[in-house]
Design a protein that fits this description.
The chain is α+β, with helices and mostly antiparallel strands. The protein has 4 helices and 2 strands; from the N terminus they run αββααα. It has a two-stranded antiparallel ribbon with strand order 1-2. β1 and β2 form a beta hairpin. The longest helix is centred in the C-terminal third of the chain and has 14 residues. About 10% of the residues are buried. The N terminus is likely disordered.
């Protein structure tokens, strides 16, 4: 996990620029794969835990909001944008 490598609240460059990691999950009853950088996976888990939700349920909520937008982007981009907007 990237968060465990934080020193004084800062990530090393090797952790910050880690390439995306693909994970499979079920979202709204459908299997999908999502590729996110570890930094975003860590933040997504943290937010889901704080909201008392499983990660896939939080991703499903983000997906609904994404599909309701006038110009929906891809799911991975929507997750990144949602997390940034929530910060």
């Amino acid at each position: 996990m990237v968060a465990s490598t934080c020193i004084d609240g800062h990530l090393s460059l090797s952790e910050l620029y880690h390439p995306p990691v693909k994970r499979s999950m079920t979202v709204a009853g459908h299997q999908t794969s999502i590729s996110l950088e570890p930094l975003f996976w860590d933040r997504l888990r943290t937010v889901a835990e704080a909201d008392g939700l499983p990660v896939n349920a939080l991703v499903a909520r983000i997906d609904v909001a994404r599909l309701e937008s006038r110009t929906p982007c891809g799911l991975a981009s929507a997750i990144r944008l949602w997390l940034m907007a929530r910060a």
